[in-house]
Design a protein that fits this description.
The complex is a heterodimer of chains A (about 425) and B (about 550).
Chain A: E1 2-12, H1 31-40, E2 46-51, H2 58-61, E3 66-67, H3 71-74, H4 77-94, E4 100-105, E5 115-116, H5 127-139, E6 144-148, H6 155-161, E7 167-174, E8 198-203, H7 209-227, E9 231-236, H8 253-263, E10 267-270, H9 280-292, H10 313-331, H11 333-341, E11 346-355, E12 360-369, E13 378-384, E14 389-395, H12 401-413, E15 421-426, E16 431-436
Parallel strand pairs in A: 1-2, 1-4, 3-5, 4-10, 6-7, 6-9, 7-8, 9-10, 14-15
Antiparallel strand pairs in A: 11-12, 12-13, 13-14, 15-16
Chain B: E1 2-7, E2 11-18, E3 21-29, H1 35-46, E4 57-61, H2 64-70, E5 77-82, E6 97-101, E7 104-105, E8 111-113, H3 117-129, E9 134-139, H4 147-156, E10 162-165, H5 175-205, E11 212-215, E12 221-223, H6 224-227, H7 237-245, E13 255-261, E14 266-272, E15 275-276, E16 284-285, E17 288-289, E18 298-300, E19 306-311, E20 314-321, H8 335-341, H9 350-364, H10 368-395, H11 402-407, E21 415-420, H12 423-434, E22 437-439, H13 447-454, E23 460-466, E24 471-474, E25 479-482, H14 489-507, E26 516-528, E27 531-543
Parallel strand pairs in B: 1-4, 4-11, 5-6, 5-9, 9-10, 13-21, 21-22
Antiparallel strand pairs in B: 1-2, 2-3, 7-8, 11-12, 13-14, 14-15, 14-18, 16-17, 19-20, 23-24, 23-27, 24-25, 26-27
Classes of the chains: A alpha/beta (about 425), B alpha/beta (about 550).
């Protein structure tokens, strides 16, 4: 058997790591997937290369995150391996060893935001973002598209790239009114400097293969074509599956394989998916075969019955409406942006972030400089009920002189008597500075 | 006394050991057309003048199955494959009589679709009409539940000469390899059976009445009666024999590399603390990945008879071989000719060797001696390059736990054991270039036959317990039992060791040589909904490849 596309695989089930004893994110989450992958002989396929993950360093984590109080306190070895595994796959792709790759790693990362006080939605650090900033830094990659097909809104990735016009973030997920984290609505389209680079496609519960593939065809693929990314990344959560215990969708292994085949991502990264016996083994095999360009038509769950999960007219209608709304809204983006920003130098937003896994509440006040030259310098005032008070300043990767100057001034003025932690993420110089009380 | 015999492509070597002494040593040319004659004559020659009554053991390693497969001189096999969902079963098509059939087992070992009786019987009629006499029956996940394979066997066995069941060959998960392994086993079962029965006939005629043992690719042996069901395990036993023959010289506290430098190829193996490394799943043979346990060897197309030429500014050695060395009447210069030119090796027509090297020297613009030296160092460099690459592959083997990733043992060889034709002459150069001590064992020219003679019986078992469904199984052994819901990993390990012991004795092992070790012992909680329901315990254990007592105690 031979792969039509050379495919790299980091398979790291971390059989010795769990959040807690019966938590869905536990040791054997990928055990049955491993069984299926081994039994199918996936690793014997010519053109399929398996790599051991590397470990992401604190420097690589701090290109993306502000860890409170420091990286070592929120990042364990398992997280470093998970992010490192994504980096390993990305390196293999960018060095031309393989055409595409899949990081089958855990724990997941797409709920981790720019500021990290602890774990939320089973995630501490954002694997995709750490990988993307690593390849931007090392290989000079510029435009990146992320298509998040996890059932939960990728709110962490959205937060990190909210202001970045060079990163197109598309999330399709179960409607936030019915599922954690309760966000990801069509009107969330990115910050003032990057309006339209974030696209949220909430799907009604019980969306089936038909609905997912319709969205791919009508919305996702055209958006990608227009954006012209250097690289396409798929946050490949598998919890849209009809057998997933914590969601309400009706997607299937065949559908996941077809979606992957349509998207043809350079790099796929495992996110959620907790039907560890009934879905993951089949979905993962389907995704790997589709990436490698091998016939996946025989991949299906033993209990798969398309009649049982056929899509209703109501669901179909709702998806059609969402797609139409987004297409229309996107056309008006640039005009709306003009009007909204007129005469403004800074734009503020406030939000409350709840770390469900670690039970922490954080209050954030964010200020972004409206900028036509770059993604804009960003300032976050973050106070958590752990009594940690952070002032975080982010100078973007292609920060203009004015934004750089403001960022450094903000950092200098940062008062450690008021904030017990002041951090500057200077992406122009690739440095990270910290002031503490 | 022990008789060890190894049939190689060119030579067949036989030794008779009395304690640690070699009392007889025979080297003869292999007759590929009549291997039986070669084997029988070899044994006959070696035991001349010895007391046949004191022969306690005969171990044979042959190229019979390997040649049959490589030369496609095998019997037709009907392959019935119950795949269920997953990769398209036509991706694994093998042989001329391949049938994907209904029926499916899932990863938990649950039968999710039954065998279709009418379909099986229709295929049976078709195979009979085509005069196919051997069957390979394989289902996906049959190592979790052999039910489908057993059901097919019950429907078919009466009508065929041999039936190979996939789950009997290995406990490893890998459907594609299981199909290939079962196919190859079925394809060589009849010829192996005939051959080894005839060999026993020869032994009997000479008055040797002890059981015959056959060497396997993992450097272990099995009784001839048992080998009739596992004929495929005898493929590629040759390289294994050589490695086993070096073990008495190995340093048990170090990591070393064994180099068997032949005419066409150099076989490379790795010893860790005196134990050869095995391939993780199984060896590759005739273009097929198999589940046949085998030593982790790499065969490099560089040897004493490799073709040496100067091409676009570069000196090339191998991988082609144009014939023997010039000094031995061959057509092109070889590393052997370089050694002869330098006066390091005697024999043959020295002038022909020098002339050949001179022609090369002229093209390279160097003198004869420099050129000969460059050929030798190039040969050694290529060999060491392959050694370093193999070590790196071993060290990059995938791991799946944080503990292993952070603490994984890295192989760092510090010694070379060199055998084969030009071993003595190349060893000093290899030592200089690698910085590792290079040693050449005495009797290195018959290391393969010595290895066969001293090899111990090896085998492996895989046991799985499910405390939720309350059973413990080892399908390969035909074993299934109830288990208490409180059963611990320790108990399952004990079950595995008991099964391993029984299996080894059945295969012909002696009580003294049951060096058992765990290869894998994992325990997972199974949670359904949000409640733990039981544990899945998985244990693999093996008899380590090694030498029988007293050789296992010997040291260099």
């Amino acid at each position: 058997m031979k792969a039509n596309r050379k495919t790299g695989l980091v398979f790291f089930p971390a059989f010795d790591w769990a959040i807690s004893d019966t938590h869905p994110e536990r040791e054997e989450r990928l055990l049955y997937t491993q069984d299926q992958i081994f039994e199918e002989g996936i690793l014997d396929i010519e053109g399929l290369m398996e790599f051991n993950p590397s470990l992401a360093t604190a420097k690589e984590v701090e290109r993306v995150h502000f860890c409170v109080p420091k990286a070592e306190s929120v990042v364990t070895e398992s997280h470093r391996i998970s992010a490192g595994g994504c980096m390993t796959v990305a390196e293999a792709v960018l060095e031309g060893k393989v055409d595409c790759g899949f990081a089958l790693v855990r724990p997941p990362g797409h709920h981790a935001m720019r500021v990290v006080h602890g774990a939320r939605g089973f995630c501490n650090i954002n694997n995709e973002a750490i990988m993307i900033e690593h390849i931007r830094h090392t290989y000079g990659v510029d435009r990146v598209a992320i298509v998040d097909t996890d059932c939960h809104h990728g709110d962490g990735t959205q937060d990190i790239y909210w202001h970045d016009p060079d990163t197109l973030f598309i999330s399709m997920h179960q409607d936030g009114r019915t599922l954690y984290p309760g966000t990801g609505f069509p009107r969330e389209m990115g910050g003032p400097n990057a309006l339209g680079a974030t696209i949220n496609i909430p799907l009604p519960p019980r969306t089936s293969e038909e609905g997912f593939l319709y969205v791919m065809d009508k919305l996702v693929l055209p958006l990608l074509e227009e954006f012209e990314p250097d690289i396409v990344i798929n946050s490949a959560g598998q919890d849209n599956h009809y057998s997933d215990p914590i969601t309400a969708m009706n997607f299937c292994a065949q559908g996941y394989a077809k979606l992957t085949d349509m998207l043809k991502p350079h790099i796929a990264v495992l996110e959620g998916g907790y039907s560890i016996e009934g879905a993951l083994p089949y979905v993962n095999v389907g995704i790997i075969l589709a990436l490698a360009g091998i016939d996946y038509s025989w991949v299906r769950e033993p209990d798969y019955d398309p009649e049982e999960i056929v899509q209703t007219d109501e669901v179909r209608g709702s998806i059609l409406n969402t797609c139409d709304f987004l297409l229309e809204e996107r056309k008006q983006c640039s005009a709306k942006r003009q009007k909204y920003l007129e005469g403004k130098e800074f734009v503020e937003r406030s939000k409350t972030v709840f770390y469900d896994t670690d039970n922490i509440i954080e209050e954030q006040k964010e200020v972004i400089r409206v900028c036509r030259e770059c993604a804009g310098v960003l300032r976050i005032d973050s106070y958590a009920d752990t009594k940690n008070h952070l002032l975080a300043i982010h100078i973007p990767r292609k920060g203009c002189d004015a934004c750089q100057e403001i960022g450094r001034k903000w950092f200098e003025e940062g008062n450690v008597a008021r904030f017990n932690l002041v951090c500057l993420q200077d992406r122009v110089n690739d440095t990270y500075h910290v002031k503490r009380k | 006394m022990i008789v060890g015999l190894d049939v190689g492509g060119t030579h067949t070597d036989v030794v008779v050991l009395e304690g640690k002494e070699i009392v007889s040593k025979v080297k003869l040319l292999t007759d590929e057309e009549d291997l039986l004659q070669t084997v029988c004559f070899g044994i006959f020659e070696a035991i001349q003048g010895l007391k046949v009554q004191s022969i306690k053991r005969v171990v044979v390693s042959t190229t019979l199955a390997t040649n049959a497969i490589v030369q496609d001189n095998i019997e037709p096999v009907g392959v019935l494959v119950a795949s269920g969902p997953g990769i398209n079963p036509w991706a694994y098509v093998i042989g001329d009589h391949y049938y994907p059939v209904g029926g499916a087992i899932d990863h938990r070992g649950v039968e999710v679709a039954p065998v279709k009786e009418t379909e099986i019987l229709r295929i049976s009629e078709e195979l009979k009409s085509k005069n196919v006499r051997n069957l390979a029956l394989v289902s996906k996940f049959s190592v979790r539940n052999p039910g489908l394979e057993l059901k097919m066997r019950d429907l078919l066995a009466d009508n065929f000469d041999s039936v190979t069941l996939g789950h009997k060959l290995s406990g490893h998960l890998n459907f594609g390899r299981r199909i290939a392994t079962a196919y190859l086993n079925a394809a060589v079962t009849s010829i192996s059976r005939k051959f080894y029965q005839a060999t026993r006939g020869c032994m009997k005629k000479e008055g040797i009445r002890v059981p015959l043992e056959i060497l396997k690719a993992d450097g272990g042996t099995m009784a001839q009666e048992v080998s009739e069901q596992y004929a495929v395990e005898t493929i590629l036993s040759g390289p294994a024999a050589s490695v086993m023959g070096t073990l008495t010289f190995a340093d048990r506290t170090k990591e070393e590399v064994v180099l068997d430098i032949g005419g066409t190829t150099t076989d490379i193996a790795i010893l860790v603390d005196g134990v050869p490394l095995l391939k993780p799943l199984g060896i590759r043979m005739g273009g097929f990945n198999t589940l046949v346990r085998g030593l982790r060897t790499f065969s490099l197309g560089v040897g004493g008879d490799s073709w040496v030429r100067f091409l676009s500014g570069e000196l090339k050695v191998g991988p082609e071989r144009k014939g023997r060395a010039l000094a031995h009447g061959g057509p092109e210069p070889t590393p052997t000719d370089a050694l002869i030119t330098l006066g390091l090796v005697q024999g043959g027509q020295k002038q022909r060797a020098i002339d050949g090297i001179r022609r090369l020297a002229e093209r390279m613009g160097k003198n004869v001696e420099e050129t000969a030296e460059e050929v030798v160092s190039k040969t050694c460099a290529l060999i060491l390059e392959a050694v370093y690459a193999l070590v790196e592959r071993v060290n990059q083997q995938p791991v799946y736990t944080i503990h292993e990733l952070l603490k994984g043992r890295q192989v760092k060889p510090s010694g070379l054991i060199v055998i084969g034709g030009p071993a003595k002459e190349l060893a000093p150069q290899l030592e200089r270039m690698s910085g590792w001590q290079a040693r050449v064992p005495s009797n290195y020219d018959v290391a393969n036959a010595i290895g066969a003679a001293m090899a111990r019986t090896t085998c492996m078992v895989t046991v799985m317990a499910d405390t939720d469904r309350r059973y413990v199984v080892a399908p390969e052994e035909g074993y299934m039992d109830k288990i208490d819901w409180r059963a611990t990993k320790k108990e399952v390990i004990q079950i595995a060791f008991n099964l391993l012991r029984k299996k080894a004795l059945r295969l012909g092992a002696s009580e003294k040589d049951l060096q058992m070790e765990l290869l894998e012992d994992q325990e997972f909680k199974m949670v359904q909904g949000f409640y733990p329901v039981g544990r899945s315990i998985r244990v693999k254990a093996q008899i380590k490849p090694g030498l029988i007592t007293p050789y296992s105690e010997a040291s260099a």
